[in-house]
Amino acid sequence: MKRLVQLLLSTALMSFCAATQAAIHCEGLVTYALLYSDGTVLVVGAWRGDATYLCNTSGTWGGIPPEICLSWYALASKAAADSKVFAVYYNTDSYTCANLPTYSFSLVPTYAGVKRQ
Question: What are phi and psi of 85, to 5 degrees?
Fold first, then answer.
């Protein structure tokens, strides 16, 4: 439990520090929240209309540990099931939400969340 709290605080701190960098915030309804047998988590969001790699539940990917990835998958699944807005934040100004790289070329998100419409 202590480890999970540390991970959540670290993620929040990274998000706060990243706020001064150029970034994009993508949000919309999720058509699919997919969890593959190898741990890959993909979402198909309205902002892109194609599969975006979020993370991997089997191991750390892009600094995102499996525990956080499982939480993001739960958020994306809940957003898809309840027709809620799912949001993803990226530290980049090289792309827009509509032209983000997809599948294995996806960028590493800084955070993911669900919001009320």
Answer: -80, 130
